[in-house]
Amino acid sequence: MSQYATLVVAVVGTGRMGADHVRRLNDVISGARVAAVVDIDADRAKRVADGIEGCTPHTDPAAAMADPSVDAVLIASPGAAHEEALLAAFARDLPVLCEKPLTPDPASALRVLEAEQRLGRRRVQVGFMRRYDADYLKLKALLDQGAYGRPLMLHNKHRNADTPPGFTNAMMIHDSVVHEIDVTRWLLDEEITAVRVLRPAPSGHAPEGLSDPQLILFETAAGQIVDTELFVNCGFGYQVGCEAVCEGGTARIGDDHGVFINAAGKWGGSITPGFVERFEEAYDRQVQRWVDATRRGEVEGPSCWDGYAAAAVCEAGVRAQATGERVEVELVERPALYR
Amino acid sequence: MSQYATLVVAVVGTGRMGADHVRRLNDVISGARVAAVVDIDADRAKRVADGIEGCTPHTDPAAAMADPSVDAVLIASPGAAHEEALLAAFARDLPVLCEKPLTPDPASALRVLEAEQRLGRRRVQVGFMRRYDADYLKLKALLDQGAYGRPLMLHNKHRNADTPPGFTNAMMIHDSVVHEIDVTRWLLDEEITAVRVLRPAPSGHAPEGLSDPQLILFETAAGQIVDTELFVNCGFGYQVGCEAVCEGGTARIGDDHGVFINAAGKWGGSITPGFVERFEEAYDRQVQRWVDATRRGEVEGPSCWDGYAAAAVCEAGVRAQATGERVEVELVERPALYR
Amino acid sequence: MSQYATLVVAVVGTGRMGADHVRRLNDVISGARVAAVVDIDADRAKRVADGIEGCTPHTDPAAAMADPSVDAVLIASPGAAHEEALLAAFARDLPVLCEKPLTPDPASALRVLEAEQRLGRRRVQVGFMRRYDADYLKLKALLDQGAYGRPLMLHNKHRNADTPPGFTNAMMIHDSVVHEIDVTRWLLDEEITAVRVLRPAPSGHAPEGLSDPQLILFETAAGQIVDTELFVNCGFGYQVGCEAVCEGGTARIGDDHGVFINAAGKWGGSITPGFVERFEEAYDRQVQRWVDATRRGEVEGPSCWDGYAAAAVCEAGVRAQATGERVEVELVERPALYR
Amino acid sequence: MSQYATLVVAVVGTGRMGADHVRRLNDVISGARVAAVVDIDADRAKRVADGIEGCTPHTDPAAAMADPSVDAVLIASPGAAHEEALLAAFARDLPVLCEKPLTPDPASALRVLEAEQRLGRRRVQVGFMRRYDADYLKLKALLDQGAYGRPLMLHNKHRNADTPPGFTNAMMIHDSVVHEIDVTRWLLDEEITAVRVLRPAPSGHAPEGLSDPQLILFETAAGQIVDTELFVNCGFGYQVGCEAVCEGGTARIGDDHGVFINAAGKWGGSITPGFVERFEEAYDRQVQRWVDATRRGEVEGPSCWDGYAAAAVCEAGVRAQATGERVEVELVERPALYR
């Protein structure tokens, strides 16, 4: 595979997450396309494949990976199916992006770990996506710089509006807290050595049998303490927050304003240095929308009329600037094409 | 061009903005590639083209557009060169994304406007990228919904840390305020009918001859008043803000916390409803990084060890949850592959 | 009058503001009492005086000031009545706190000014109370320190939920903008030399005939520009804000979080250095409530039971700290007196 | 003692807190004066008494309380001396404001409790001053209204810049956490039934032997969980925060912007309804400053010149409003008296 070649991907699992990853690979990001999709539900696999040029549906992961055009595998099937798919990918030495969890329990995870070691090199990236969130990345960079000294504690918050039917106490750990487990290990670069769970009297909005909220406490190998409020039926929306308490300051994310610092007698955050940083995503979105519309044979967005009107106001503005007076803007009548 | 075909783009201008758009088209967004680059500096065009498979350098826009594989044109040359490039694109009926300004003055803009009308359909999108910024989009949506009544005033802020050598008062309008001109027209959906510019005693940090800051005042056809603080040597960073004052509330962007509302006795904003909205960009970034690394033959990101450790902590967590006790986490020794 | 003597005050005007000042002088602040109240409405004066030990009602300001026990005068009658009351106070050389406006127009103000000069020393403090607001005081201190260089512009906001019947455009200046006039002159320590008023198309919630909102623009003797959004039927509450744009940073008050600074690449504010600054008002309020209750013969607030329970939890806490274990708190049964 | 009589107070303890309470009683609040001060250090008592008209120094609390003019007692001596002073006040049936702690341990507190019960009515208010803080009061009111359902958890933060020499782990509970103990009991209206203390690896800035920070966990009789981060050498200032997690929303204080709510899809707070609420303290401070200056024979604050200048700008403003033009402000030359 040349550096410039498009990455050809097989996606295992075409449920909600899998279908979203198919869309992402084909329509959002650069440099990849989906050539095979796998689902034990053959109809679902076929429906997804039908929408994509050159994409074949499968029911067996190994069969999809046998396609010689496939360069890499994205696994988004239920956790219990991961081990088999991972081992099939290892058999063909294919790189894998595996949605979390790697596998549902330590014993099976250990088998995967050992299989990858037999390959002699890493093939798997696990889908802990918070490590790619802009706010968590900034917090991680701050901690790695050590600007405020060593981190001593983390205070996490993890709130969901509500839970789907059948959500259990164990799922609160496996599906929700698992993110704080990874965030803790990644931010602090330490293993977690002990866990406590405190269960207050549950909310009246908690489904029968669910102990919600809970307070989860971690200790790390370095003696740090991490607390996590998990409240999965909070009713008001989705909120994820993390405050790192360091020797000389605290840094908090999750309040909708980037990284919030307490240090050296001040609270606050950083100002974007320039327009590139501020509007980088707007530029990306602008060009993506233009490409998408053009591929559909359409034209949208700001028109020549908008360009003309801006030029006319600029001209008046420069005159107003020079004279200090009110200057009227003159425009031709708006042509039909731009109404 | 089929709906699924990659859009083949010629980029006119390979300076800072042009080179950045080349990178964006090839490496960031989905569905496009650059097949031709144009610059009056032949060496610069060649340097940019050399880094891209199947990309030809040109010094003449019309020659680049003559390549029959070219589907569309992105113009990022200096404003004075836009008219010629736009007319060349019109001659071949090619869709265009034209960086702002459309052209530097109303007379030339009018010529472009007339030429496009002769084509009988829109071919041009002008690069007012703020219309694609997440915050401005939310503000626009709020105003269009009319949740707080009609907008009566806008208060804009536009601050730069400093200006490059040779920056003039006229450029403060043409290069800086032009964004507020477009934002005003777009947010309010009204033409600007008059302009005033008030010039306070300048900052000691303003370069000789530059009247900085300035207060620019617009009136719209609907009688709205818009003020803009322009301060291009503020020293502390880049800040863009807009507060819309409506009949029943105000909505402000630019303070690093999304849209800030005053209405009905409350200040504040909205909570993200779910993890998809909150982490959408993290998912995109995760998969893009995986594809990029895989294309380079590398593996990075969370490893199988991270997956295993998470599974082990989850197992301990579920036990801690059930017993109310402190539960120690047991891990095998970390294998060499994951150190 | 000795330094330790209580200041004996005559209050002129017993409407809403006047009655509130009577309460303030007697029950809130230290070192003063009201011995005379004046109102052209004799019944109203009597009703107010009846509630206060040793207080006499009057209908004529001069008669009240003739009481030899009166040390000072607080004028809170309508503006048109101020000149007469001020001159009566000057006749007896009494110090005056005069609610704003000093008088309603420059000609009468000039007469007062000349009369005070004839006394040869200042006797009057005008009631521009924003100069005593904690946030404005902090902003003033920042500007006086010059930490961010000279102030170049001020952006003011002045919003009221709604206006009483009969509120006019002229009252928007005389009753509302007058505060920004004083704030501008005080913060910048410069006279205002010119005024512009821009009137956008009014809100649908503005009463018939009222041009609301308005944008008021001041120029100062030093060439600074000050803009004020005045919106007196904004519907959502009362908001007052001021952002000072200085050569090297901006400082904003009015967003419910003290002074908000943009400077040197950071946004944010200061952290209170210690508990005295943080809880000073709580201490004042605590002791005032205790004195008030005790004077009424009552006991309220935290009880001995609260003190005992705190001691018991502390004891358990110290044990928990030493052992690392969960320690139960033991309390005697709660006595009837504390239920 | 009549309802209108000044409350005559004996203050026991004239150290930092005691001297501050003397100042508060005499110069800040309304309706009280200090007639006796007590300190085992006779010189210190004398120095404090000397500054106050009609105030006698004592070394024995009982002797001070024997003064028949004394109406009430404020105890601000070290905690170990409280029991004796309280019993002396009970012997004379005097109302007491007792600084926290009531006494240093549950056994002595229980003796005081029993003594007060023998009086048959409450005589003591304990100085847990956070119950009088504006932010805590708002949070308490919210919880009592139950607007967001029952409170399930509290997250407290208590941070000090640093600790004085000799500060011990036990003092972290007795002097610092004691506030969170009272806040918890008061806000939740429940007793604390169990305590845990988790001690992370200490900060490098913690003095030898001090385990700083700590995480303190309370359980309440109703099954609520309360966590408190105590970090007394955080270095950056003093911060106290409390977030109440309720069944349908959270309410947080301590981030310098009043009460911050998450509920019903929104984050944010309340807007002050009117100028009285917004500027109440400014009015109090204005009048207090005026009374203080007048008692010293001085005049300060806004002058007649300020009143005149405001009137002149108002007049110009009304003209500018009517004409839409720039109107110059005319002032007489500033008289010497007002320079």
TrEMBL record, chains A, B, C, D:
<comment type="function">
    <text>Involved in the oxidation of myo-inositol (MI) to 2-keto-myo-inositol (2KMI or 2-inosose).</text>
</comment>
<dbReference type="InterPro" id="IPR023794">
    <property type="entry name" value="MI/DCI_dehydrogenase"/>
</dbReference>
<dbReference type="Pfam" id="PF01408">
    <property type="entry name" value="GFO_IDH_MocA"/>
</dbReference>
<keyword id="KW-0520">NAD</keyword>
<protein>
    <recommendedName>
        <fullName>Inositol 2-dehydrogenase</fullName>
        <ecNumber>1.1.1.18</ecNumber>
    </recommendedName>
</protein>
<keyword id="KW-0560">Oxidoreductase</keyword>
<dbReference type="GO" id="GO:0050112">
    <property type="term" value="F:inositol 2-dehydrogenase (NAD+) activity"/>
</dbReference>
<dbReference type="GO" id="GO:0000166">
    <property type="term" value="F:nucleotide binding"/>
</dbReference>
<feature type="domain" description="Gfo/Idh/MocA-like oxidoreductase N-terminal">
    <location>
        <begin position="9"/>
        <end position="128"/>
    </location>
</feature>
<dbReference type="Pfam" id="PF22725">
    <property type="entry name" value="GFO_IDH_MocA_C3"/>
</dbReference>
<comment type="similarity">
    <text>Belongs to the Gfo/Idh/MocA family.</text>
</comment>
<comment type="subunit">
    <text>Homotetramer.</text>
</comment>
<dbReference type="InterPro" id="IPR036291">
    <property type="entry name" value="NAD(P)-bd_dom_sf"/>
</dbReference>
<dbReference type="InterPro" id="IPR050424">
    <property type="entry name" value="Gfo-Idh-MocA_inositol_DH"/>
</dbReference>
<feature type="domain" description="GFO/IDH/MocA-like oxidoreductase">
    <location>
        <begin position="136"/>
        <end position="251"/>
    </location>
</feature>
<dbReference type="InterPro" id="IPR000683">
    <property type="entry name" value="Gfo/Idh/MocA-like_OxRdtase_N"/>
</dbReference>
<dbReference type="InterPro" id="IPR055170">
    <property type="entry name" value="GFO_IDH_MocA-like_dom"/>
</dbReference>
<dbReference type="GO" id="GO:0019310">
    <property type="term" value="P:inositol catabolic process"/>
</dbReference>
